[in-house]
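G., the chain you wanted modeled:
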Amino acid sequence: MTSCAFWGISRDVAAFRQIFAILRKDLLLELRSKEVLTTMLVFALVVVVLFNFVFDPGAEEVKVTAPGILWVAIVFAGNLGLSRTFAREQENGVIQGLLLCPIDRSYLFVAKVLGNIIFIFLLEVVILPVMIVLFDVHIGGAWPMLLLVLLLGIIGFASVGTVFSAISANTKSREVMLPILLFPVTIPVILSSIKSTAYLFAGRELSEVWSWLRVLVGFDVVFFVVCFILYEYVIEE
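Predicted structure as tokens:
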């Protein structure tokens, strides 16, 4: 093995360790406090239950409205979680220590995005069965595809949300600033996710779902790459 190849592998291992250390720290803090997940879950459940009183379970119109209701719950609850991405670091001054550490700023971004994806995906895993029971939605054998849609739908959302959370963390009204910045930018991801979910709820052909999934993957890649590049400049400010 050449020295260049060995150096490349060593650098990759070091990057993985740094990302994992930051991610592990966030997960352990949340496991102890359960602050973010509890807030997100309660909010999403309230949204789903309230909409359940508006529509009759099993009605034909539910197949049309249920995907939108599901993603409204996910997006607004996810916004609450994203607003806390840097809250602990800002309140305790930890963010300055992280910036002084000899780590690449992009590793901090990747760790924070992964943490947000995990939190929101756990929310989806809990909310989806509740949604299916309350609205009497029949998924059939489309569960794997639906979980894939839910995962892809939050990658771009979490990437943009992490950057905007860093921007709004230094403002006094970060809870208001974040959704103002986040929702307009992530509309393409949200709409693609709703369309893909609607096709699955309606029992459409998987080929039709794949057409929207390709759009969703495209937006995810663009948003992640752009946010990855911009994050270093944003966090320094």
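The radius of gyration is 19 Å.

Shout if anything looks off.
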